[in-house]
Amino acid sequence: MTAQSRGHWFVGMALAWLCGVALQLQEPALHGAVTYSAAVCVGGLGLALRGASRRTLATGLIGVLGMTMLGFGASGVRAVSRAAESLPASLEGKDIVVDGVVASLPQRGAAGTRFRFEVETALLQGKSIELPSMLALGWYRGQHEDAADIQPRGELRAGQRWRLTLRLRQPHGSVNPHGFDYELYLFELGVGGTGYVRDAPAILLHNAAGFPVERLRQAVRDGIEAKIADRRIAGVLAALAIGDQAAIDREDWDLFRNTGVAHLMSISGLHITMFAWLAGALVGALWRRSPRALLLIPVPAAARWGGLAAALAYSLLSGWGVPAQRTVWMLATVTLLQSQAAVWPWPLVLLAAAGVVSFIDPWALLQPGFWLSFGAVGLLMASQPALTVAVSAPAASGLKTGLKAGMKRFASVLSGGVRTQVIATLGLTPLTLVFFQQVSLVGLIANLFAIPVVTLLITPLALLGVLAAPIWVLGAWVSTKFIVALGWLAALPGAVWGIPAAPHWAQAAALLGSALLIMPLPWRARLLALPLILPLLMPPPPSVEPGRFEIVALDVGQGTAVLARTRNHLLLYDAGPQYSRDSDAGQRILLPLLRGRGEKRIDTLVLSHRDNDHVGGARALLAALPIGELLTSLEQAHPLRAGANQHSRCAAGQSWVWDEVRFEVLGPELAQYPNLPGADGDRRVKTNALSCVLRIASAQGSVLLTGDIEREQEAALVARFGAALRSEVLIVPHHGSKTSSSAPFLDAVRPRLGIIQAGYRNRFGHPAPEVLQRYVERGIVTFESSICGAWSWPARSGTGGNCLRDDIRRYWHHPGPQHATQ
Q1: How far is Cα 382 from Cα 225, in angstroms, rounded to an integer?
Q2: Where are the alpha helices (DSSP H) in 84-174?
């Protein structure tokens, strides 16, 4: 077999393996372990037949199919093993006494502390039971619904063994368009259950029971916080030194994203690769000084393996996260290949690394970080070789000549760095738009100084501070100046540009175009990239015909958020809950959704009443998007009113028409508001009673949005409007509380569909069984957001709508019961 034939064979096998892995990742449900094991055996048999036969097209196809089956089966075996670690449904919601070890660096927030817990033993009512080996837990405080106020959370440290009383549930997350797949994240980490520490005695059994690397990370973070008074800057140093991304404030993450440098502020492939390169250069320089070492291993080999060892150590210190693991496996593959005598072309090196990573972590193929990391490396390899400078130059004959040579080397390094950044920025822009629907227009400028400052100054200073704590003070000073400079760039008009999510064919064409754009080809060939990229940049906007509207009831947990879109206008009814001081539905769910849809403004934001589960995400929306009008029952002094240019009190009788679709406010009546000026939030008036009730109607049908109204308000609506309440879709009042959905109200509305927005296993017991029974008795089909995910009523369809969880279901998603009741 010639070298060219071997190359073709390797490419075919690598692509076949990756296709097999990708095929398994598309399964909505897992087969049994026997099925996947059989696929592995068949795949191995196909490869054996190919190897024992003559090289023909038929045997080549057999080999490709065999490798595909091997990738499919091997990934399936891993998935079955991982799925078997999930918490049994029978143990949900029960108090379980668990002995175990804190397996991760605790992440502290305003609501409490989150951490991973490795289970050793578990007791339920005094009897031993089996639990998943790894749990994700919260130890909350204050006003959090799962607070355990008497517990000593401040004593929690990585590596400690505790006896805790836990209440657990199966891994479950919100499912929304363009949203983060939290259930995939937990599955990839091997977390089989989530829960929280109960308000019961907690006993520290051992202060250092295991996880020495995590204990070291804890000591480094404690040292940084003790030395740096500014918690904002201390968080940046902790993130770069030990990978504690949660230590960075939410506002700073917004700044980093808007300036295109967010990839630098977490321990990413860039950090680890740069650290490996610097360590390799140092090892090589030291190796040259030892004649004995030179006789054992050549300098290039010593530098490569030394850099890999340094990358492994840094990845462990950073928490051994999934992105760090992928980078280490990629570097290890490249190091092994470079250690062989044969010269491997760069596409084969990338394919080999991708194969190794997907073997160890099949679910990496679904992560943006995987494609961004490999895309950046591939783009740089595919482009013209960057200018390089010899490690050691000939000695200069004089001072003037030496200075000139030094300046020339510096100019070469600088031009090579600028060229590398330009290639990476231009080449990865389409990929960034595919994954995030936005790109920073100041990112190129920001990264020109951010990459050297972060990778060559702040990160080394953060690490060196482990050896000498005063160095952290210098790192904090540089970080402060760096953040100020980013703030100037972020304040420029048009710093961030966003587009709607494009069809898959347009995304694939744009990625091909970006590769053509930076490859060393004639300019006439590169111009072909423009028509390939344009469909991504100008996707057709979703069209809603006049007289029709689209409804999306989002899965925000225990809370409400509903989008209503006509042809030219957008209304948002409520903004979901605030989960903690640093996280809310606006930032986590609504803004990604609006960016993915290409929405540039909200014409009307309705905040039905002041409860946190309805207005908690509004602050993020008001800060990020122009709001035409805020319609709300909030008191005049409420801070959210100050965030809108135009706001008014919702009251029965208000109405307007958008694109032949009528919007009508049915409640509350003005007489229901307190008489005292500015006292709408007076606790003598129950906030639920002031919920804005909105009806949307056209020839398509009608939807009634009810907030948290209860029986008294329902009775008043029936008395005032009677049969005029009739609506095809009802957003179920008060999340299905037993204080709402009274029989007379349901008989007046006569909905065909009822949408219940409530959190999975929420502490209120929503929806109440007796309420669900009333819907069943009337033949009303109900959809629960915790089971259905985001529910949409398409503008072109009069059907029962779509459950996103059904549309995109994969085997790692929480199964749940049937999503509809009849």
Answers
A1: 43
A2: none
Q: pLDDT for 565-599, tens place per residue?
A: 999 999 999 999 998 877 899 999 999 999 999 89
Q: One-letter amino acid identity for 61?
A: L
Kindly tell me the number of DSSP H helices and DSSP E strands found in the chain.
Answer: 30, 28
Average pLDDT over every residue of 700-707: 95
Instruction: Scan for tokens 């049969």, then name that residue.
Output: 723
For the chain, give the number of residues.
822
DSSP string across 742-790: -HHHHHHH--SEEEE---TT-TT-SSPHHHHHHHHHTT-EEEEHHHH-S
236 CB-contact burial (10 Å; exposed 0-12 / middle 13-18 / buried 19+): buried
**3-state class (DSSP) for residue 664:** strand
Cα–Cα distance for residue pair 482/464, rounded to 1 Å: 19
Q: SS3 for 164? A: strand
Alpha helices, DSSP H, located in 607-728: 612-615, 618-624, 639-642, 711-721
Distance separating the N- and C-terminal Cα atoms of the chain = 65
Q: What is the pLDDT of residues 345-403, one digit of tens each?
A: 777 777 888 888 899 889 989 988 788 777 776 766 665 443 333 333 344 445 555 55
Region of 94 please: left (phi>0), alpha (psi -120 to 50) or beta.
beta
For residue 755, list its beta bridge partners. Answer: 731, 783
Q: DSSP readout, 560-629?
A: --EEEE-SS-EEEE----EEETTEEHIIIIIHHHHHHHT---EEEEEE-SS-HHHHTTHHHHHHHS-EEE
Distance CA 739, CA 756 (A): 14
Architecture of the domain defined by 89-210: Beta Barrel (2.40)
**701-705/729-731 β-pairing:** parallel
What is the arithmetic mean of pLDDT over 231-236?
Answer: 92
CA distances from 475 to 480, 482, 585 (A): 9, 10, 34
What's the mean pLDDT when you consider all of the chain? 85
Decide the pairing of beta strands 112-124 and 95-102: antiparallel
How would you classify the pairing of strands 95-102 and 161-169?
Answer: antiparallel
Q: State the alpha helices, DSSP H only, in 339-367.
A: 346-360
DSSP for 367-429, written as a single string: -HHHHHHHHHHHHHHHSPPPP---SSPPPPSSHHHHHHHHHHHHHHHHHHHHHHHHHHHHHHH
Return the H-helix or E-strand segment holding 240.
helix 231-242
How far is C-alpha 288 from the geometric centre of its chain's CA atoms?
A: 45
Phi, psi of 9 (to 5 degrees): -60, -45
Element (DSSP H or E) covering residue 704: strand 701-705
Superfamily, domain 550-821 = Ribonuclease Z/Hydroxyacylglutathione hydrolase-like (3.60.15.10)
Instruction: Kindly report, residue by residue over 32-58, the tens digit of the pLDDT.
Output: 999 999 999 999 998 888 776 666 677
Neighbours of 441 (CB within 10 A): 18
Query: What are the tens digits of pLDDT across the range 6-29?
Result: 666 778 888 999 999 999 999 999
pTM for the model: 0.87
How far apart (Å, rounded) are the C-alpha atoms in residues 186 and 59?
A: 41
